[in-house]
Amino acid sequence: MQGLFGRLWAALLLGMLLCLPTHAAAEDGYQLWLRYQPLPDAQRAQVADSILVLGADSPAKGAARAELQRGLHGLLGKAPGIVAKARANSVVLARGAELPAGLDAASAVREQLGKLGDEGYLVRRAKLDGLPVTLVAANTDTGLLYGSFAWLRELQLGTGADRVALASKPALPLRVLNHWDNLDRSVERGYAGQSIWNWWELPHIIDPRYTDYARANASLGINGTVLNNVNSKAEVLGAPFIAKAAAIADVLRPYGIRVYLSVRWSTPLEMKQTKTADPLDPEVAAWWKNKADEIYRTIPDFGGFLVKANSEGQPGPQDYRRNHADGANMLARAVAPHKGIVMWRAFVYASPEESKAGKAHDRAVEGYDQFIPLDGKFDDNVLVQVKNGAIDFQPREPAHPMFGAMPKTPLIMEFQITKEYLGFATHLAYLGPMFQETLEFDTRIGGSKVTVADTIQGKQGRVGGIAGVANIGASRSWSGSIFDQSNWYVYGRMAWDQGLDSRAVAREWAAQTFSPEPKLLDPVVNIMMRSREAVVDYMTPLGLNHVMGSSHHHGPAPWVDNLERADWNPIYYHRAARDGIGFDRTASGSNAVAQYAPEVARRFADPKTTPPELLLWFHRLPWDYRMPSGRTLWEELVTRYDHGVAEAAAMQAEWQGLKPFVDAERFADTAQRLAQQHVEAQWWRDASIAYFQDRSGLPLPAGVRKPAHSLEHYKSIRFPYAPGI
After folding, report:
1. Which residue segment(s) compose the domain that 402 sits in?
2. 109 vs 104, 135, 136, 139, 724, CA distance in Å?
């Protein structure tokens, strides 16, 4: 295996050096934010034109050196030299133990590195043997890779080489992507084409795209990837697919990325190798231990398992009257000797039988109810993975009440980067503000400020991690559209540092993806920062949620009432009728508010102190309820729909004004998508208003345009072949 790895690495490194970017290439989005366009002459003169790598070589150092060569070739217009000793303006890569005697202030550098951990990095101007150089220093070779990307990012943003001064380390040890990729290359909730993993050709045929995927993730500090769908198949743990995963792991390893697999709970039973899947059965535990040993023999740095159990029909320990801790701990003990982990998803809700029996009175409370009693009962290498909200990746949800409520259990924040409920890859919706909104949510645990970010960082309990459901596919633009790349980018940057401001990150992404020219940058960032709120307004204003079309989740369908489970039906979530609209989660309803800390619960329990954007999430109110704006609830609802459509139109018009500053290919692609978004925003507005007017029996407010078609027309629209199902 080591020989295979060495050959793969040599071939990939040679490919990277032979394929340095040429600026005649079409701007189809493939290069992401790693375009490395030529710098202005004044800035170029300060940048290193040679690279010095100190100490023993390694695959990670080789990846860092190759990226610096690629980046400097693009930024300077010429290939940098690889030197054996420092030259003026060299960029010097050195681990702390390899710092040379001729480096000024070496003791201060070592002291600073002592605070940066295994993945942190230091970038600063220094003198080596009396010559001015840029020092990239870290405690590990992976840290050197992260530092190299960070330095190149600063140069792309227009920072002068003599002014770059960085010292950074991640707040969370686990920063992963979850691919919902199936073994036939279809992608559940994926809107960018087939899976990038060509399972049929693996392990013998290695797509160079895997290396570019690794580069992009390493540039953000993402250090893990779950290769397959949480709705897993037993075959993924067969020897052929383990070999395929190992081939991917060989490519990703130099970039600091471990691979993980989603596993199906009933795998040994389905393979007919055990008589049960009961986690307390010794035969089952032995099977998983032997399987873990087999995987680690093939992938020595395998990260571990991700599990979706007893959720949406998936098998799990509850099938055997066991709890989630019983199931997670059995798997955790199988991987523990190899320092592996188990990520156990908390996305659970009642079985169909319980739902039919009326026990599923509020889907929003069920994850909390099932997991909070288990706090402290999970093994040390189990992390419970919790969606950002309690329902299901809606355009807006309050932060999940589990954050802060399990201090003895490390929690993983799960965000969805792919926009299952926000218009797929067609609608422009920059998710940075949503991520920031959740991470900054004040849980008030213990009566003082404790943000969601604090809880996963271990400031209230144990250190957890962060996971993002990937929006990556085989399309040339990776994410289905240029602007959807920004969601991959902002997820990675906030995974590294949960305190980053989403506007600042949008500016970073836009400057690297398009240009740091203010005439382009300022309007693009303004569009991005308004985009998610526009989507919320024309889809789910005032706390409405889950009103999308059945199964495919495309387009409005608040009228659906005939699905198998009560809580799969949109009417379950809004309950619109003549007397009002909304879901009562106060003490008079499901009492979901009681799952939050008392101070938060009091705020959400009163409609007057509930933020308007969450009003109908927590309250069922009459149509004539008076809003802070002075409008009635009905008038406010219609106003929000209209505002969302107006914003979609404004974004479309503002993009048209940027045509002189954007290459023709990416401009045209984005223009088409914004035009379609505007059309679909109007459809959302018209269909929703037609339905809620029918339910309320109220006339449209004065001056409001009536829907273009009848309610029956909107109900008749079908999408049997929507992507991502």
Report:
1. 174-419+451-500
2. 9, 10, 10, 11, 49
